[in-house]
Specification:
The protein contains 5 helices and 2 strands; from the N terminus they run H-H-H-E-E-H-H. It is mainly α and about 180 residues long. The protein is about 65% helix and about 0% strand. The longest helix is centred in the N-terminal third of the chain and has 93 residues.
Length: about 180
């Protein structure tokens, strides 16, 4: 509202000042309300901007977490597979060692020669370390290929065929007490 308009209505200066004061209060209240609303709008716009930035960060983090989760899952799977492979290899080593010991105990002359004759799918190692399925196969192999087993006859490899001492030495002389030239044969 303008003062000229109020003068054209033939109002006195006092009346014009009173009307202008009242209008000024309303204008001031409206301007204050406008400033408050503008500040709220700015605040809300800032919140929206912050929210959008947070959402983008969360997307990036979720993507990274997804990648990390996938990497973790892949590593967990790899370690699980590695553990299974290690356990299978360890079980095979235990089986091989138990089999070698059993072959020696059964007087097998050459384990490398005998092993291809064994059906390894049948031979199992129990939790107690016992071999299952070996004895039956060894008996069958012994019946068909007895030459693969030492039947308890020892061959005497000493040249004199006797006590296994050095050839040419008939006494139990202590080598440490002998002179160096006496030890030479």
């Amino acid at each position: 509202m303008k003062r000229d308009f109020l003068k054209s209505l033939e109002l006195t200066d006092e009346q014009i000042n009173a009307v202008m004061a009242e209008a000024g209060k309303d204008v001031k209240a409206t301007k204050d309300e406008q400033k408050t609303l503008a500040a709220q709008i700015d605040d809300l716009n800032q919140q929206l901007s912050d929210r959008d930035a947070d959402i983008e960060d969360l997307k990036k983090q979720a993507g990274d977490n997804s990648d990390l989760a996938q990497k973790y899952s892949d590593l967990q799977s790899k370690y699980k597979d590695d553990s299974k492979a290690w356990q299978a290899e360890n079980d095979q080593i235990k089986l091989d060692n138990a089999l070698d010991n059993a072959l020696v105990a059964n007087n097998v002359r050459n384990a490398k020669t005998l092993r291809p004759l064994l059906d390894m799918d049948v031979i199992k190692l129990t939790d107690k370390g016992e071999l299952v399925g070996l004895n039956e196969q060894l008996e069958a192999i012994k019946n068909d290929n007895g030459y693969l087993f030492d039947e308890g006859t020892k061959t005497d490899y000493s040249p004199k065929g006797g006590d296994g001492q050095n050839p040419g030495s008939d006494d139990d002389a202590d080598l440490a007490s002998m002179a160096a030239d006496a030890r030479i044969i």
